[in-house]
Amino acid sequence: MKEIIEQYRQNHREDLIPCMQHVQDKLGYMSEDAISAIGKYFGLPSTKVYGIATFYDYFTFSPVSGDVVRICNGTSCHMLGSGKLRQEAEKFSHSTANKSRKRLNIRLCECQGACSAGPVLQLNDRMFTRVKPEDVKQLISQASEDGKEDSNG
Asked: Could you check whether the bond before residue 119 is cis, i.e. omega within 30 degrees of 0?
């Protein structure tokens, strides 16, 4: 973790969030140790780093297994039907069509910054725009297949 944090300029607060994102991407979540180490490096109390992390939907505080499905629920996406995307994701998660039987972590999140292209669905690290409810099953299935290929090859 130290190697990741030290890639950023010490005490330059504009590097704080990119550093936090990088740490989370590598660890899979923001551990107490990570929060403490980031705070020390940037000259901030751990409570300040934790406060920033809790403000953003992106950060999690415990390990996550399976695929992460983030559905934007910002005003624009909400008006364009993000609720239906969530319903379809939940339905697929519990269906026999979910052949991978990988756990799906379905989360509503705030604006993803693609308001003119909503509704937005983020699946792990990939963002999809203008998603229709009937697209959800295929997107999640494809991501699960891609994950199998990555782990086997």
From this structure: yes
Distance CA 53, CA 61 (A): 9
Longest dimension (CA), the chain: 50
Residue 107's DSSP bridge partners are 70
CA–CA gap between residue 132 and residue 85 (Å, rounded): 7
> Count of CB atoms within 10 A of residue 107's CB?
17
What pLDDT, on the 0 to 100 scale, is given for residue 49? 95
**Contact assessment for residue 29 and residue 64, using Cβ atoms and an 8 Å cutoff:** yes
The first and second tokens of residue 105, run together, are 């972590």
Q: Show the 3-state SS of the chain.
A: CHHHHCCCCCCCHHHHHHHHHHHHHHHCCCCHHHHHHHHHHHCCCHHHHHHHHHHCCCCCCCCCCCEEEEEECCHHHHHCCHHHHHHHHHHHHCCCCCCCCCCEEEEEECCCCCHHHCCCEEECCEEECCCCHHHHHHHHHHHHHHHHHHHHC
Q: Are 34 and 3 in contact (CB under 8 A)?
A: no
What's the pLDDT at 101?
A: 54
How far apart CA 33 and CA 76 sit, in angstroms, is 37
The pTM for the full model equals 0.67
